[in-house]
């Protein structure tokens, strides 16, 4: 028995499913998850001493690679002054200024502790601002686990094969309307049906929780136009894409301006941070400035802010990283696609910049329904064999692969050699 297996045996007795977040459990893979001891650069090491090339990157935050020295040092330095005060700090002001001065569509921003909280709060303020209740979301988009968003939520819910969560009262999702990703007609139909009651459309500007599904041409622009026409707010959930596709996230990448944006992952560099921000007239409604209540004991935590701000400053000063990630993405995902094609396999390699998903289906994957045509058993075999070859990817067909600045061309070539053997 490996140490990971022994730990998992202990874990399942005391932690539901043995993990603190579902996809970690390797649910559809049928093995004990690898328990991780440490990570550095593009490598992650398990408790049995195995080294893997890591394409999870903590699900996105580690865009500079694991254990990045400047971030580690900023955290250690912040710790010297105490871990939390529950009072206002200078670094929170610096963080807010840093983002607002560099992201044109963010006039004001509020820090929270997770992507879930960011979305939940953004939706509340959108409702408060518009005085309307209905929210349009897309099947297969994940926006965290708040009640209203747990409808066809993609990600872990999709992996577990459970369409929606138990324990969510009907009333909580009554105002959540479900549209089809990449189908602007479906959104238009909902707007018409809702009779002026739509507060906001929330979207992952790049779907990354039903596997990676980029927006088709005109889709995001179409959402912008519909929101304007019906006086609803457009919320980009940039928890994955923020500071990843470009410093200004998907909004900058695609040139479409949302009213509100949510962040997570990269903004905290591995510490638990989320944020929501956007138009001043909307954000001024947030408590205590306005009547929309939202709070957090540990929000804007100084250690977390130190980590996040160091990472954001580094990214802003080294924006060549975004071009490099594009090239690395082309090399890795383009390479995987070529291998699959040469072998005559029925797969789809969806990718954009540093994000990619290999779908085991013969059908182009453009939305939730087409993503679900994937052969998850074939994916599980692929995952297990890649892991044996020392490549650590998300143990789910419906999660993204994440490239970081620490993945060198040599590492990518090594990965492609493994893909060639495994496929
Ligand atoms: N939105 C998106 C797009 C996400 O990918 C996630 C998490 N993967 C969330 C929201 C929720 O973030 P958290 O897990 O930090 O609550």
TrEMBL record:
Pathway: Porphyrin-containing compound metabolism; protoporphyrin-IX biosynthesis; 5-aminolevulinate from L-glutamyl-tRNA(Glu): step 2/2. Keywords: Cytoplasm, Isomerase, Porphyrin biosynthesis, Pyridoxal phosphate. CDD domains: OAT_like. It is found in: Cytoplasm. Its cofactor is pyridoxal 5'-phosphate. GO terms for biological process: protoporphyrinogen IX biosynthetic process. GO terms for cellular component: cytoplasm. Pfam families: Aminotran_3. Its EC number is 5.4.3.8. The modification N6-(pyridoxal phosphate)lysine is found at residue 265. It catalyses: (S)-4-amino-5-oxopentanoate = 5-aminolevulinate. One of its GO terms (molecular function) is glutamate-1-semialdehyde 2,1-aminomutase activity. Homodimer. Belongs to the class-III pyridoxal-phosphate-dependent aminotransferase family. HemL subfamily. This is Glutamate-1-semialdehyde 2,1-aminomutase. It comes from Blautia segnis. The gene is hemL.
